[in-house]
Amino acid sequence: MGPEEFDRNVELALADAQLRRNFAFAMGSFIARRQAVFSDAAQTERLRGQGQALKRRVLSRLPELLEELEANCTRNGIQVHWAETPAVANRLVLDIIERHAATRVVKGKSMVSEEMHLNAFLEKHGVEVVETDLGEFIIQLNGETPSHIIVPAIHKNKQQIARIFHEKVPGAPYTEEVEELNAIARATLRRKFAEAGVGISGVNFAVAETGTLCLVENEGNGRMCTTLPPVHIAVMGLEKVVEKLADLPPLLRLLTGSATGQFITTYVNLISSPRRAGEKDGPTEVHLVILDNGRSRIYADPELRQTLQCVRCGTCLNHCPVYTRIGGHAYGFVPGADRQDPQPPGFRTGPGRRPHHGLEPLRRLRGGLPRQDPHHRAAAAPAQRGGVTGGRERRARPRQPPQPNGAAGLGRVAVSQHPPAGQPPAELAAGPHRQRAAPGGAPGALDPLPKGAPFRPHPAAPPGEGDRNQR
Ligand code: SF4
User: What is the CB < 6 Å shell around ligand 1?
Assistant: First the structure.
């Protein structure tokens, strides 16, 4: 989307009084709930430090942990697939569905699948996709995309949802009673769960040590998607791997506390294998699709690597002064699930797709997003030359203070590393390092490399290098 279209969207969003009221109400409630659950500042600081240390350790061993995850999942009977691009990931998912002659899939909320535009791809190939998370179900009925990574239908109020159900669900009466609206969704979805040939889910954390997929949710739909259909396909970005099962409690505490203001979600699903002999339920096949889509380039960039610490809690959206006034749709993509550049939401919520959150004190895992803003802005500047912000960035750069680690200002480092827009830096141009797909990642052009082919970190980014901006 160009700046003109974005400006138009902003005008429309700002003129929509109902949208602004909906956002103001939802964000106020999010912020209050999170404050309540993290009311003990010292304890919260300790927890954040713990989460940061765990994620930093993951990044220092990422290639190795991905190999370990694959080995342990495979040992458990989970089939692991690597995808360099969304096109390859979509093709992999479709191949599995077609192999089982399934025509309907039920799907839990997954921002990676938004990044892949999976629904549109499957529907184009004749597969019915049923979103089963209530928020996703609502916006799917209304032909929309999510407006928030945690609460997809955050921009709708009760009356709007009542109208959508009444108009789009055959036989549904108009009701504003929440219980009745839930009952309509439940009755509609139950039949779909029972008839689906494949269930698709995201992954919150994938435990390398045990080959376990962890999935948190509040509605039970995730459990239904991963239990009822005979085949379960989980999709994840490669940064979701964690070292040990013991790492989950602090990370879950941070994620759920930040995302929904809960100490723990209603359901915490740990999936370690397909149905075993003697078990009464569960799919007979479980697949894990691991998507790169630029993440290994981010990993190879010492300035950006720490963004892979993001646990997609959505807090930076809730506090972003721009996002909270215009909502997610104005950007033309789902902040935090952008197909072109999978970054933490906070990077992509400012005007013209530039970071604009300024939330240093709020960063949940001390990812230091604001400290990386100059790097992103400098990288974007060539494309925006002559534009308002491009000029502003260039003027602002010389005023950056010296960095405490002794490096030159981030802006200057970034400029020296980034070529003109559209071209990767020369040292990263070799592309992703876990090559399981043919060059170009064309659908259907999978190149079955020998099993165990190593994921290779870029030599320019030795483990730990990316932590240099951490405090
Ligand atoms: S970058 Fe945003 S979504 Fe990611 S962990 Fe930090 S606050 Fe949460």
Answer: 258, 310-316, 344-346, 363-365, 367, 369
- Asked if 86 and 440 count as a contact pair (C-beta separation under 8 A), the reply is no
**What pLDDT shows up at residue 261?**
92
Which residue in 335, 241, 332 sits closest to 292, CA to CA? 241
- Hey, is 72 helix, strand or coil? helix
Nearest to 459 by CA among 56, 57, 63, 67: 63
Q: Are 334 and 345 in contact (CB under 8 A)?
A: no
DSSP bridge pairs for 216: 268
Which residue from 151, 304, 311, 324 has its CB within 8 A of the most atoms of ligand 1, so it is best to mutate?
A: 311
* 175 CA distance to ligand 1 middle (Å): 36
Chain-centroid distance of CA 444 in Å reads 25
pTM confidence score: 0.77
Q: What's phi and psi for 65, nearest 5 deg?
A: -65, -35
d(CA 339, CA 87): 11
Q: Give the lowest-confidence range in 118-132, 253-267, 309-323.
A: 309-323
Query: What is the reported pLDDT for 131?
Result: 97
The angle formed by the CA atoms of residues 142, 147 and 148, to the nearest 5 degrees, is 135
Query: Hey, is 206 helix, strand or coil?
Result: strand
